[in-house]
């Protein structure tokens, strides 16, 4: 099975070398946990290997993604010029911009992605949807269906998908998970205050057909580098309670 490196230093070896080609992987977490940084890195790593990439951005403009990529050390402008990258702007629709969508509508998203795929030409394509949850903001009950539609429509299109999601604990509990149900893999990003410092944590919650590591890891976002896996963490009961709310409850206690 072919695996695609994520480009995150320290992560690929935890998942037997990378994300299996053709998978749909959900990168989920609260605001500021590194979902966009991960998405940019996954894209840049594909581009560096000569792969085609499509990046759908819903919460930031195309400009903002290009700027953030540059801060992390990746030249997206060059890739756009060369025709190996398409950034679909779902935040700022502009007349005449073919790579933007007007409505946060899943069918419109899918058809725009297919158009981009045709433009990029033959071969495998990495697709990032950052974020997928923007498509069900006012209708969380549709989360699972929309995620399924995306995966199913693109199943024969030779794509590997990373979709980010961010939602309130209440909606996750009330309506069940969305993208997680249909995802072949789940990377969960968390925040925690440990000894008075904001730490970022990562757990590989699911990766089908992979003997993945099951520890909680501390990660960092580094300028010029992006996400880096630092070391496994032992979370004390106290620190656990200070973790921001989690959809996981067990006997009244928060669990990672
Ligand atoms: N160039 C950088 N150098 C160092 N740290 C950075 C850099 N860029 C971002 N960060 C850190 O990463 C965090 C933002 O990560 P990111 O934008 O990926 O979060 P996110 O999970 O996508 O959040 P949201 O759900 O709000 O979109 C910032 O708050 C900052 O702490
Ligand atoms: Mg983001």
TrEMBL record:
It comes from the Archaea. It comes from Thermosphaera aggregans (strain DSM 11486 / M11TL). Transmembrane segments: none annotated. InterPro entries: KaiC-like_dom, KaiC-rel, KaiC_dom, P-loop_NTPase. The keyword Nucleotide-binding applies. SUPFAM superfamilies: P-loop containing nucleoside triphosphate hydrolases (SSF52540). PANTHER family: PROTEIN GVPD 1 (PTHR43637:SF2), UPF0273 PROTEIN TM_0370 (PTHR43637). Keywords: ATP-binding, Nucleotide-binding. The lineage of its organism: Archaea, Thermoproteota, Thermoprotei, Desulfurococcales, Desulfurococcaceae. GO terms for molecular function: ATP binding. Residues 2-243 form the KaiC domain. This is Putative circadian clock protein, KaiC.
